[in-house]
Amino acid sequence: MASTVLATGFEALDRQLPGGGWPFPALIEFLMDRCGLGEIGLLVPALRELQRRAGSERPGMLAWINPPYIPYAPGLAQRGLELRRQIVTGPLTAVETLWTMEQALRSGACAAVLAWADAASTQSLRRLKLAAFEGGSLGVLFRSPHQRTQASPANLRLSLNVTGEQLQIELVKVQGGARQREVKLPRDLSGGS
Fold this sequence. Notes:
two-stranded antiparallel ribbon; alpha/beta; 5 helices; globular; eight-stranded mixed beta sheet; Rossmann fold
């Protein structure tokens, strides 16, 4: 599958990313000290677009691997995500999470795979990136900011923090380069297109 981009739905962020959006297919890492900072809101416009693009030949499933909380179905539906195309696993170990993510990415059935696992070797990350390209999927791995110093083959690494009513996005690693290293968005990301 040829590389392309998916608009993030947030013009300020799109302006800083090569090509004007999330790389696709790709492995993206979100580094954050806790959940609920706005990370899912950042992804919703792209997830919605991936489901829209899916046709009869490709199911366009969205896999949630080892999420810290069960995704809130009414909220997903309100944001335009098709509930019949959601797969959610229960709690898994780090090893099980990475294996499941790799299989889901490689399968070609998932448009995007979101997974939560702090521990991941550089070799595991390489396997995830390769699986994303083989399956033509978007892989998003949520990890602790303590993993920031670990080398990563991910196409994009973002560090998220909240200050007051703003979501601070630090572009830790951007293949192809970024114009700026930091982007600030309103914490309420429901305005994403």
